[in-house]
Write a structure and sequence with these properties.
mainly alpha
Length: 395
């Protein structure tokens, strides 16, 4: 039996419990980004993400690397909940030790390690009864800890479905982008596909505005969900060549080109979508603690700009020419590219270019049985299989 009191242990226990409860409240309940210098969850993710990135950096195959990185988001979420629980158990053990007045049934000496065990069984409401608090304060503390254990279980039950529901809503729009802008999506491919056929190259303004309006809402939901639940930033898309950040950059690229000036297209909705998407890019860069990279490579050199104009022109889309247009596009790019690049560098996300150097198949066009089916069908006709050259025929 112990009956002594320890004021430092009580104070330290109160501080630990208060910090964990405040952090859990800010992470799970508070729907806004916390700008305080130290935040326990941010500290936890920095200490776990950095070694995970280093291990991933040793994986050379892009698909395997992204698969490995994809484990971090869900696993870190479980680890964070376990980290909170362990800190609360440790904090209550300090309080029980500081208050004293405990008795073990076997009359053995009660050490701090056994009080941690007692705190754990109380927190998870096991209630073996082999260690018994004998003072009123210690008993009240045990009841409080057991109630907090129930509340923690409720947080876990309620938190996980909300996070995965937000992830699902985010991924639906990204999956739809596959057939609209290629895999990975690019601004040039999206505009070319919206332009229709060579016989009717004009983009339907109503269709374009409707598409951009959907992406304006998606950007707003992305901002809201990733600020409320920062762990979503680490959740990867289903395919290694897709990502929420790549989709966001594609929309910023598309709207930048439209705002710069494409003949026959009114830029009104594009400006609204650009504003919302840029807002998301800036704020989410701060959520993941991205740092400005002054050594970032130029994403659109003169040769790439000329090739982009030629690609759009071939689809009947005339991008505004002249130095003024180029300067306007550069100004728009400078408003979001540094943020997107730094975020991608932090999260190890591969960003798509303005346009692909060569035609590639979309994700929906690929399947595990395609070669077998093609070979079987052509064998009946007495022909040799031909490897698909690209995605010229999208549908």
């Amino acid at each position: 039996m112990i009956s002594h009191t320890s004021i430092p242990a009580v104070i330290l226990g109160i501080i630990i419990i208060a910090v964990v409860l405040l952090d859990a409240f800010e992470t799970v309940v508070l729907p806004r980004r916390v700008t305080r210098h130290f935040k326990l969850t941010a500290w936890f993710y920095r200490r776990t993400w950095i070694p995970w990135r280093k291990i991933a950096g040793r994986i050379r195959t892009p698909s395997r690397q992204q698969n490995f990185l994809g484990y971090f988001g869900p696993l870190s979420l479980i680890m964070l909940l376990g980290f909170w629980a362990a800190m609360l158990i440790f904090g209550f053990a300090l309080l029980q030790y500081g208050m004293g007045s405990h008795e073990q049934l076997s009359k053995e000496a009660i050490t701090f390690g056994r009080l941690i065990y007692h705190s754990g069984e109380t927190f998870f409401t096991l209630g073996y009864g082999d260690i018994v608090p004998t003072s009123s304060a210690a008993r009240a503390l045990s009841v409080l800890e057991a109630g907090m254990g129930f509340a923690f279980l409720g947080v876990v039950i309620g938190y996980l479905p909300v996070v995965y529901a937000s992830f699902s809503r985010r991924e639906i729009q990204i999956s739809m982008l596959d057939a609209r802008a290629g895999s990975p999506p690019t601004a040039a491919e999206m505009l070319v596909r919206l332009a229709g056929t060579a016989e009717n190259p004009a983009i339907d303004q109503v269709v374009l505005d409707g598409c951009l309006r959907d992406w304006e809402r998606w950007s707003a939901e992305l901002l809201e969900s990733h600020i409320s639940y920062p762990v979503l930033s680490f959740f990867r898309s289903q395919h290694y060549n897709q990502s929420w950040l790549g989709a966001l950059q594609t929309m910023l690229d598309v709207t930048s080109l439209i705002i710069t000036g494409i003949e026959g297209i009114h830029p009104g909705q594009a400006r609204l979508t650009f504003a919302m998407a840029r807002h998301a890019a800036v704020d989410l860069a701060q959520v993941v603690n991205a740092r400005y990279d002054s050594q970032a490579a130029e994403r659109m050199p003169d040769a790439e700009y000329d090739r982009l104009r030629e690609t759009l022109a071939a689809a009947g889309l005339k991008l505004r020419t002249g130095d003024e247009a180029r300067q306007k596009l550069n100004k728009l790019r400078s408003m979001y590219e540094p943020y997107v690049h730094s975020t991608a560098r932090n999260l190890m996300v591969a960003l798509p270019p303005w346009q692909q150097p060569a035609k590639t198949r979309d994700n929906w066009q690929a399947g595990p049985w395609d070669r077998v089916i093609q070979a079987k069908g052509l064998a009946v006709l007495g022909q040799k299989p031909v490897q698909p050259a690209g995605n010229e025929d999208h549908f």
